[in-house]
Design brief:
heterodimer; A: alpha/beta; 40% helix; B: 7-stranded mixed beta sheet; 14 strands
């Protein structure tokens, strides 16, 4: 079937310009992403997560590796994640406790209970919160990277779009705008096979998303999205090219969404054997672990130690916030405008 | 003092802010070398360069989205919609992304989106719109609509300096029709959120904005001469947030209100103003709150049709006369 014919590029030889510590750090982010989502699933089943839960199971590799290719640190590169890019936010410095608080709508969450899940930002760390309207972040990131260019700052932006999002008008307007302006922008297009329940053949008539980019004069590459180091190298190349003033670069990552659109979705539209194949044969974390062990860049014990630490970290974050209060009702009013400070309380609430 | 048109006043305001603050830049379709469809930015690219006067593709969503992104980074972009009718192409970006950014994410999105509005110019359905009602409903946006040359200048400058996103509506029928002496070398800033009493009177109040200010003043003059009715005229200048205090002041003074706008009737701004008067000054009313607006149809092209659909001075005179006699 089509999904099994994902082109697997020749993986770069370890260490892809990475030191051993970095290889292990990549593993840590992969494990943290997966484990944090598993914890969220448990909290979801206990009704502690207020809204929906969106998993990135099976595609954590491209999220983590692409973000890892950016320059991190205060006011360096900046990315705009989508719902399944939790891994990219963790790489940029988002804390597990922030994610947990967001999902549980806690008063202390980064958005004080106003927004859901991974919809929050920290521009200094380098991530901009998305909105639910797919494609909208492409023009916004075009504007952000246009500013980098206008100011002559050596910074790069990265925007994630899903295969479904490439059908929106905003995606096309934004990509074209950024291409014309030669913005230092990397577009990571995630071909994960499912847009909610819609497969690619009902979403677009091209084979690869990279073909769309070429229509805007944007160089594009298609990589095996479950090969962590291949994604890292492709994104690194794109980011450094953009940093040198060469404009937009498009990186298509072929991966697979192994969970439903959200936790409520039973995936009845997905062939069971297809899911099994991806879980057994093409899991990005398993593949990465195998690479590390086979090449001797890590020992079993190194990875176990990391697993242990990550689990402790997630446990600690969960314990610290699970019983925190929700925001006070009237805290809904301030902050719509810089001035005046709060929306007016409606008259009947004072009766 | 030199006499300047509404358009020249707007130009001056933009120019002065570009000179004052290097974070200010302009983006839009044909704004650079061509100078904008109505020449609002003529000469700007020569003075400020292509980096600060950016010709964009025909992509309103990208123009507004990119402006938002730049504003997050501390810039002060002014996005031009070639005709305001095309702002609907950026509706999602404005209402979902821009308007919510501060509330949901603490992001500053200090952008101005401006463009020529309004009818009486035989522009047909897609070059004549007044889009305020579509955005009036969205918390997080501000909307200003100058009627005078002074406010065209004062409001563009205030909008650029405002920390929130502002939709600046300029009436193309006023561009070269309205002239005013403006002092040179004096900073003109019109505070956002403040209405202006354009004419004093005791018998009834007209609450209006944009090009309708001039038709309302014409009607008021006619009623004074022909009927000895003293009409007070309030120019709102800012639609979001509305200046409730100024509206209630005039209601309490004259006890009769006519709301006049060029936009269509159903769901128009007049409905909201009437509701507020009802809530805040019901006891002061001696007559029902009445509206003069355009008919609820897309704006047609032929002069006979357009003139019939849009409010005319004579309509305002008749409505005011009816109200005065109530």
């Amino acid at each position: 079937m089509a999904s099994r014919t994902v082109p697997t590029t020749q993986s770069p030889t370890i260490p892809a310009g990475l030191a051993r510590e970095q290889l292990l750090e990549l593993y840590r982010y992969l494990r943290l992403t997966r484990l944090l989502e598993e914890r969220l699933t448990a909290l979801y089943r206990q009704s502690k997560v207020i809204g929906g839960l969106f998993r990135s199971l099976g595609q954590e590799g491209e999220s983590v590796a692409s973000a890892y290719a950016l320059e991190r640190g205060p006011n360096r590169d900046l990315l705009s994640p989508l719902i399944r890019n939790l891994g990219s936010m963790l790489v940029m410095g988002a804390q597990p406790i922030e994610i947990l608080r967001q999902y549980m709508a806690k008063a202390e969450s980064p958005t004080c209970g106003r927004e859901l899940n991974v919809h929050f930002n920290d521009l200094e760390r380098g991530y901009l919160g998305q909105i639910s309207h797919l494609g909208d972040m492409v023009p916004v990131m075009a504007g952000i990277t246009l500013t980098f260019k206008l100011r002559g700052e050596p910074r790069v932006g990265l925007v994630y779009v899903g295969d479904g999002a490439t059908s929106t008008g905003a995606f096309h307007e934004g990509l074209n705008f950024a291409a014309v302006q030669r913005c230092p922008l990397v577009v990571v297009a995630e071909y994960n096979r499912w847009a909610y329940s819609t497969p690619p053949e009902k979403q677009f008539a091209v084979k690869d998303l990279a073909e769309k980019a070429k229509g805007y004069g944007v160089p594009a590459v298609t990589v095996d999205g479950n090969d962590v180091l291949a994604v890292y190298e492709a994104t690194k190349f794109a980011a450094e090219r953009a940093r040198r003033g060469k404009g937009v670069h498009f990186v298509e990552v072929k991966t697979y969404r192994r969970k439903g659109h959200a936790e409520h979705d039973d995936q009845h539209y997905v062939p069971k054997e297809e899911l099994e194949w991806w879980a057994k044969e093409n899991d990005p974390v398993d593949r990465y672990v195998r690479r590390l062990l086979d090449t001797g860049w890590a020992e079993e014990q190194d990875l176990k130690d990391i697993d242990e630490r990550v689990r402790g970290e997630v446990d600690e974050a969960t314990d610290a916030c699970v019983d925190e209060p929700l925001p006070l009702p009237e805290s809904a009013l301030p902050g719509v405008y810089a001035d005046p400070p709060a929306a007016e309380r409606l008259w009947f609430r004072g009766l | 003092m030199p006499e300047v048109t509404y358009l020249e006043a707007l130009r001056q305001g933009l120019w002065e802010e570009m000179e004052r603050d290097e974070r200010v830049f302009i983006l839009g379709e044909d704004v650079g070398v061509y100078g904008g469809a109505f020449k609002v930015t003529e000469g700007f690219v020569k003075r400020f360069g292509e980096q600060r006067v950016i010709d964009t593709p025909i992509s309103e969503a990208a123009i507004v989205g990119a402006a938002a992104g730049a504003a997050h980074m501390g810039m002060r972009p002014v996005a031009e919609m070639q005709f305001i009718d095309f702002i609907s192409c950026a509706y999602d970006m404005l209402t979902n992304y821009v308007a919510t950014a501060r509330y949901r994410a603490g992001l500053s999105t200090a952008i101005v989106v401006r463009g020529p509005c309004g009818g009486y110019v035989r522009g047909g359905p897609f070059h004549s719109q007044n889009p305020e009602a579509a955005f009036f409903h969205t918390p997080g946006l501000k909307i200003v609509y100058p009627a005078t040359a002074r406010d065209a200048k004062g409001l563009i400058k205030a909008s650029i300096r405002d920390d929130d996103p502002v939709i600046y509506l300029e009436h193309k029928w006023l561009y070269r029709r309205i002239k005013e002496q403006l002092p040179e070398g004096e900073e003109i800033l019109t505070p956002i959120g403040e209405a202006r009493l354009a004419r004093e009177g005791n018998d009834l109040s007209i609450v209006t904005y944009g090009a309708m200010l001039w038709k309302s003043l014409e009607a008021a003059a006619q009623l004074e001469t022909e009927d000895r009715v003293a009409v007070e005229v309030l120019d709102l200048r800012t639609l979001l947030p509305l200046d409730d205090a100024a509206i209630m002041r005039t209601v309490r003074k004259t006890n009769k209100v006519l709301i006049v706008h060029e936009d269509t009737r159903t769901g128009g701004v007049a409905g909201e103003i009437a509701a507020r008067i009802n809530e805040q000054a019901f006891e002061w009313l001696d007559a029902p709150i009445m509206r003069v607006t355009a008919h609820d149809v897309p704006l047609p092209y032929a002069p006979t049709l357009e003139d019939y659909v849009l409010p005319q001075t004579e309509d305002i005179v008749k409505a005011a006369r009816w109200l005065a006699a109530y």
